[in-house]
Design a protein that fits this description.
4 copies of one chain form a homotetramer. The first copy, chain A, has about 325 residues and is of the alpha+beta class. Chain A has a domain at about 15-140 and about 205-215: 2-Layer Sandwich (Alpha-Beta Plaits), CATH 3.30.70.3000. Helix content of chain A is about 40%, strand content about 15%. Chain A contains 11 helices and 7 strands. The first copy, chain A, has helices at about 35-40, 50-65, 95-115, 140-165, 175-180, 185-195, 205-210, 225-230, 270-285, 300, 305-310, and strands spanning about 25-30, 70-75, 75-80, 130-135, 210-220, 285-290, 315. In chain A, helix 4 runs parallel beside helix 6. Chain A is globular. The N and C termini of chain A lie far apart (about 55 Å). Mean pLDDT of chain A is about 85; it is low at about 220-265. Chains in contact: A-B, A-C, A-D, B-C, B-D, C-D. The interface between B and C is large, with 48 and 48 residues. Chains A, B, C, D: Its cofactor is Mg(2+). Chains A, B, C, D: Adds a GMP to the 5'-end of tRNA(His) after transcription and RNase P cleavage.
Chain lengths: ~325, ~325, ~325, ~325
């Protein structure tokens, strides 16, 4: 029996395919987490259990979606990055965002009791929303991640100074806010050091830098120039090389008069065997969470597989 | 300390605001539920525990998002409908879809042990994806819901016949599929009745009709013509009457020569007091799950508050 | 010889299909017409030659695009309306807007010498930009057109009073603007009448109402209730009935238990013969330009074929 | 008098802003040009008057829209490229496409009599449609243009062989088509040479390569590494440097611990004076139409100002 009578309603679904050859960032945020963290007594300014739970959920998202190349989390938000060549779900924005949000939420709820064994969840449960943003160049993508990490730094310095005044200084929140109004970063460092003996630079990196999640690979067989490419973006032109919808170039391009266009066309895509090998490497690679500076070049040049999207030899789970 | 250096990356976020005055349907689907239900031993063709869990999660979504007017669920999918006047999250598609998916997932995971006490969840956890579709008219919206309910009917009749052959007839799945190939609905009814003594029309309504979720109100003070409007759509022109971004019409429209345009302009929006009262009524109304025909007019004419979006006197939780 | 090597770039074209069952308004505006009209000495506050040229170009657009049901023009802008069932160019926004803008521009330039025989065009030539907006209900569509016509009224009353002071009162523009600052419509009427003996209501309708373009049909065989539908929008539910991409409902809908859904589903689409006859009627109908009130119901109830999208017996060109 | 009563309809306009930092190609196509060229007796396979008219119209488009960096035309189509940093019309797709289509159409109609003095235009007038496509990298953009130029080559070789058979060989179109069916480029070259004495490589470049339109500048003060960048795309990371909506970085970025991120952030934007000087240079630069290979690197490396978007010393109109 057909269902044709009403099926015309499918024509109302509109395309939300993201532009090819752009880096896709899906950022998720906790809904109403100010109230949520207060209800469950999260420690201020940072709660290690809460951070641990966020990172645990993020790792599971990275595990399930192997197209993700890196994640960055701070406070109640987490950003996940799909490689610009990613074709998962045909790059449909709604599928990419809802899938990430759903997996993340599932693990956040399921793993809650591991991190907060004393305080069972009650209604309303924690939940997250999300959105996808496209970045055309590696520079834009890195600037996005830098934006989030600078934000982490700004907020954490402020929060550290704010809560030190309350928790160690014994003043009330209104007074603490007034004290910080209009202060520079140097002022806040000074307040922390002179009044509370806190050297901000000795605070744990997880608080100051946030958390970076990525696959761990070994640096072995990469071509010598690859490391520079992630900085200088010279591979930007290798556009859309893996787009599944793009027909493989025929081998005999009978264009005698048009000459050499090396450097413009996408490089030869991976052979089927190589792609499969690459996929397996990614699947095997251990996913780690670290607290590193992702603004400077070092993070990226030392891990070229993240932006090339080609797995090196994986460091497997131990 | 400002974060302006990288903040330009915000300019890459693109608008995904849905068209005003359209009904918004967010449909979510279980990801890989064929494998998931098999792993956890869901009963075939229908598992009451699984259906109960879906409906429980859907009720919580309806409770948290009071802008939702009705939900419809079958198998591993659930459709949620926002009223055409809804302005939640400024109608941003990504916020609407991810929020629904996240709340649904959270409760699905949290309530799992209530419905499947013997089989704790393990990795990979259940998750859902979702998408938003706009429908400009009540007719389109009702046709969408009819489409889903007809699909429920078609699939359930097939599945009932398919699994009867295997579970009661003792034949294997390949053979069962062959038997049903090319059969009409009447044929399947006949197979069920003559071979297995099953009168399909006596099967539980929850299997044959799926589940409808909505707020329960009393029918008291509604104007006499309201019930017809949900069928005939005569209120369609009361466009965008509640759109928060729309300035309130000034009372003295000095347009002497343009005369009477009653019937075209949006009706006077609810006064602040009335809107607040309406909001409270919605919050108090009991959310029910029933298994009714939503294709025929009856369901809608008997519950005019669903499509008018104006709560009647609520039937509260007992 | 294939062109496959570069053809992957086609994958970057993104869908811009407009939502089905919505009225599509394409509004075009003259680019830099303040300077343009000054350069060519347009008369103030209204230039009959300029208005005539706009209307002539608009008529040609209506002639070439038979899916257009009505146009409304004032000053250097023109709005064109596609019926909600229109499937021209698969409803792609870019095709619809650029085609209208291009046809309009072509005739504006070509017919220029007919309306301005003394002043040949020189660089830069007149040009227009445009955009498409969707309106889900007849009420929204009529409110859009009312918005434009009220704007015409407001601007024309102002301009008439402004230029009367300069042309008849002999004062300079700065002084004229000051005089009108903060005045009501009644004030402006009074200024015109007491100072310059102008009864605004006797000004030509083309200035006060703008120009409406539509196909002229005879009122013969229309069903009795059709006229009310354009006001009350009772036909709103006849969703998407003509969408070419929608499969025709099969005649034997084996859904025995779901009963009567009349009034919800799209009405039977026109048969091929009827559709062809309708198309021919539209092609033959004379396109007229009038200066009527399109805010009140009369315009629409007297010409039901405009919003039903079904041509009556056409009044042909004489 | 306010117009607030109906103004809510503006809320239905949806954003169509194109993604920042992407190259924007607007391609326009003649509507129904097969019939049009036949009606006006265009010569086959190429009509110099028609090509001249297309190029004349394209030059005027380039003159009026100084944000355009290059155009490419063949047959009845023309592609115009906006620089990735372009902020014209806030990058709204509808404004960009309709403006180009309108200017082009205006000049095509106005200049018609210059190129076709014997055959005045009659209804229906020539018109064009258009669409915008974003390309994230220089490689994608160049591949797009290569795609069009290869298409030109393929079609022109075919058409040359096709019409030679008819015009010189005296056979009918059906037979001519049959002869070419399944032939390679070499076959077509051979047919032209052996049967009609035509050496395809001696055909005019305008037919074989199409037409490239761009601003002519002198190569003087450009930094030594600029020429390579247009090939290697090393400047890709200078994202969005000119986006008007992006706040100027504050000079004192108090981020002591995050170190050197040179090479990622956008370069310092041009100073106001420099930007103004650049604008003037662009305005003065002569716009030329040439028939060159734009697939190979040479065209781009010899004219670095095209892709850098920074004008060199202009070659002015003589």
């Amino acid at each position: 029996m057909a269902n044709s009578k009403y099926e015309y309603v499918r024509a109302f679904e509109q395309s939300d395919v993201l532009l090819p050859n752009t880096w896709i960032v899906v950022r998720i945020d906790g809904r109403g987490f100010k109230r949520f963290t207060s209800k469950y007594g999260f420690r201020k300014p940072n709660d290690d259990r809460g951070i641990g739970l966020m990172n645990a959920a993020a790792k599971e998202v990275m595990k399930e979606l192997q197209d993700l190349i890196v994640g960055y989390g701070v406070s109640d938000e987490y950003s996940f990055v799909f490689h610009k060549d990613c074709t998962l779900f045909e790059r449909r924005a709604s599928k990419l965002t809802t899938t990430i949000v759903s997996i993340f939420t599932a693990y956040y709820v399921q793993l809650w009791s591991t991190y907060f064994p004393q305080t069972p969840l009650s209604t309303p449960l924690p939940s997250f929303d999300g959105r996808a943003v496209m970045y055309p160049s590696v520079g834009n993508l890195r600037d996005y991640l830098s934006w989030r990490q600078v934000d982490c730094h700004i907020n954490n310095l402020y929060n550290t100074a704010f809560w030190a005044q309350i928790q160690q200084g014994g003043i009330d929140p209104v007074k603490a806010e007034e004290e910080l109004m209009g202060t520079s970063a140097a002022d806040k460092n000074e307040i922390l050091f002179s009044r509370f003996g806190v050297n901000y630079n000795n605070e744990p990196e997880v608080y100051r830098k946030g958390s970076v999640t990525f696959r761990e690979c070994e640096l072995t067989a990469l071509p010598s120039d690859t490391s520079s490419s992630v900085v200088l973006d010279t591979t930007e032109h290798s556009a859309a090389s893996d787009l599944s919808s793009i027909p493989t170039p025929s081998t005999s391009q009978a264009r005698p008069s048009y000459g050499d266009d090396q450097g413009v066309l996408p490089p030869a895509p991976l052979s089927k065997t190589a792609a499969e090998k690459d996929r397996k490497r990614r699947a095997k690679a251990r996913i780690v969470v670290e607290h590193l500076d992702i603004i400077k070049d070092d993070f990226w040049t030392q891990r070229p597989w993240i932006l090339t999207g080609r797995a090196g030899k994986p460091v497997t789970e131990r």
